[in-house]
Amino acid sequence: MIRTDLSPKDARALNGARILSRARNLNGARNLNGTRALSGARILNRIQALNWTRNDALVAIGAAVVDLTGFALAAAEAGRPLTVTAVALVVLAAPCLLARRVRPVAVLCAVLALGVALNLITAQGPHFSAGTIVALYSVARVRGPAVTAAAALAAVPLTVLGSSGYGGISRFTGLLGNTIAVLLVVAAAQLVRRWQQETEAKRTLLAERAVADERRRIARELHDIVAHHITTMQLMAGGARANLARDPEVAREALVTLEGSGRMALREMRQLLDVLRAGEEPEDTPPPPQPGTGDLERIVAEAGIGGLETGFTVDGPVRPLPPALGLTVFRIVQESLTNTRKHAGQRARAHVRLTYRPDEVTVEVSDDGAGDRQPPSRAASGSGYGLIGMRERVALQGGTLEAAALDCGGFRVAARLPAPPGPDAPGGEGEEERG
């Protein structure tokens, strides 16, 4: 009903009061809903703070089923009625087990208190419930020896407190049985705890070993890249300087090779650093392929331009090799030619032989030494990092490496690497000479 006897001012005041009342009611409803939502969020956070998983819920349900079944069977055997209070005390131990990971001692106390209350209101013999086993196991798994011993000493008498002997089982017999049960539970928890600690220690050791292996692999790659390309660049620079005045064309070719070797070194270094940065940044383009047997002609040609006369022979039907195996062959040849340029003398000649066999591949790099160095100066002890790196590479592929000075002068490096042929491996017969 709208009143018509009100002045415009009173009508405006009345409308304002109605609007204010509605706003207050709306705000009150919002505050009430907000309070309910906040309370629900707090309850949810508290439940999540228990840190229980689906397995914990299954364990709690299983313990409740076992205890309830045992209590029902014992009551039926003794002719006792099942009261609601007794059943509630048996079942209430299960929800307590959900907090056993964050509050194991409190959970054990709650379970023991429920067990004592059950013994006091219901006449039953000594027993050791499944809930007590789980709670005591949780304490022994995560707490120290002092807390575990105190929990075990408390669990033995409290589990028989208020119980009565029946069926020929006295309180002393029940106390002895519960003591054995407590010892078994604690021993099992300690064994599992030690096993998990040993497993974690082994996992940590394996992770550290993997990191160390990766560092050694990176060190080998850096050594091979730097040693080979820096040696090549040094020789090219020396050749360009020597021929700059008398033969500018030879000097220009040496400088071009020097530029290409530097570019190659930077590309391989960048590729290696990309491996270290893997996972930090998204990769827009796939990584470039690793060098393999198809790049042997290039490093042999570079060795010839650098002043080391080098021959290259391929025996057997050529077939593609796995990337890791091809990289191993490439690094062996690269490192061997680098060592030859360093130690064999300026008039030395080298030869690279790659042989494909049905189930393996062999690579051999030898030089004549040119008479500039005696064999003892390049003993096969393998003290250099290059030879150590080659041995590690070959060992990772399951092969063998021989590195020894020749009696007639020079040095020889030979590696045998297992390489079973693939189902679609192409082959070509004959022998190919290069160099």
General description of the model:
- By secondary structure, the protein is α+β, with helices and mostly antiparallel strands.
- A 6-stranded mixed beta sheet has the order 4-5-3-2-1-6, covered by helices on one side.
- The N terminus and C terminus are likely disordered.
SS strand fraction: 5-15%
Question: What share of the residues lie within helices?
Answer: 55-70%
N-C termini distance: 113 Å
Give the spatial strand order of the biggest sheet.
4-5-3-2-1-6
Category from helices, strands and their pairing? alpha+beta
Instruction: Output the radius of gyration.
Output: 41 Å
List the helices and strands and how they pair.
Elements (H helix, E strand, L loop, with lengths): L7 H42 L4 H25 L5 H13 L7 H18 L8 H13 L2 H14 L12 H73 L4 H29 L19 H10 L3 E7 L7 H21 L5 E8 L3 E8 L17 H12 L3 E6 L5 E8 L13 E3 L1
Parallel strand pairs: 1-2
Antiparallel strand pairs: 1-6, 2-3, 3-5, 4-5
Write out key terms for the chains shown:
9% strand; six-stranded mixed β-sheet; disordered N terminus; single chain; rod-shaped
Short recap of the structure:
With 435 residues, this protein is α+β, with helices and mostly antiparallel strands. Helix content is 62%, strand content 9%.
